[in-house]
Amino acid sequence: MAKVMVVTSGKGGVGKTTSTAALGAALAQAGKNVVVVDFDVGLRNLDLVMGAERRVVYDLINVVQGDAKLAQALIRDKRLDTLSILPASQTRDKDALTEEGVARVIGELREKFDWVICDSPAGIERGATLAMRHAEIAVVVTNPEVSSVRDSDRIIGLLDSKTEKAEKGERVEKHLLLTRYDPGRAQRGEMLTTEDVLEILSIPLLGIIPESEEVLKASNVGSPVTLNNAASAPARAYADAAKRLMGESVAMTIPNDRKSLFGKIFLRRAA
Amino acid sequence: MNVLSFFRRKSSAPVARERLQLLLAHERAAGGGRSDLVNILREEILAVIAKHVTVDRDRIHVKMDRGGSVSTLEVDIEIRTPPGDALALSA
User: Fold this and answer.
1) Using one digit for the tens of pLDDT, what is the confidence trace for A113-132?
2) pTM of the predicted model, to two decimals?
3) pLDDT of residue B88
4) Could you give the maximum distance between any two Cα atoms of chain A, in Å?
5) Which of A27, A106, B4, B50 is most buried, judged by most C-beta within 10 A?
6) C-alpha pair distances (Å), A177 with each of A16, B13, B54
7) Quick check: A196 contacting B, CB < 8 Å?
């Protein structure tokens, strides 16, 4: 049965789109049929991060309003044929998304895919509530930083009240994805630790993504970090998180990019 | 920064943690819909006082200070003495 998952955070710039692309690609690499849906109407970026920006013809709004068929708007990833993207509209605003239209599109996507991953816009308004509306799983992306943790707490409150599941008296399965984590700084007392954030938000941990240059490198070239450099620390952390989403139990580690001196010299020469 | 202040430097993460815990305890208790608690209190207090004395809306200040174990609500209402009364008092 298809799973609908929202990637959300409240606060902007914490890594929702990066995480949507990376988790989507990792699940697709594991052989699942995956679609990533951009709900950030007016400020779409998932297409750019996934390297599909030049192939956008129709978008979510066109499908919601019945101007295009779902199959026309879906873009198949060039690297992974099990991965598709449904882009958001860049010219319209979030009011063009109707509750019924979104419900219908999500219903159609459920029939075609194993995983429907909704990339939520920042904020707590219509776009964000519609993105989480039909989800049974939520990934709450949080930076170890006060404003991000506070906003995540607010989003968790919305997941428990404004979703279809919540209204039926059921629960959305919530997971914390801690991004831009720097173990060294946390150890020196300069950054909230994983334990701090878990204690405050009290939802289970899906993964810890270390702060890494690889994330920017991947978005520069329009490739999910899990595809761009699968051996990099963030890619390994995302791959582990994807395995946990599929029900595997994987020991929680924080991968690092630190190379041996020999490796550093060698890589610098090679580059 | 000299050597001494380097050693005396307190780590900031525990401060962040405490501030968050305190803030969220209050925000969760308020439950989103009642985040404007101070405004609601202000309006209701004003309604009660206005039944008995004339008060100027702009001269009411409601302040809330949220603490760990005790929070304080400070209500400051200025009641203008009517000119007649002032005369009577001085007489």
Assistant:
1) 999 999 999 999 999 999 99
2) 0.82
3) 53
4) 59
5) A27
6) 10, 19, 55
7) yes
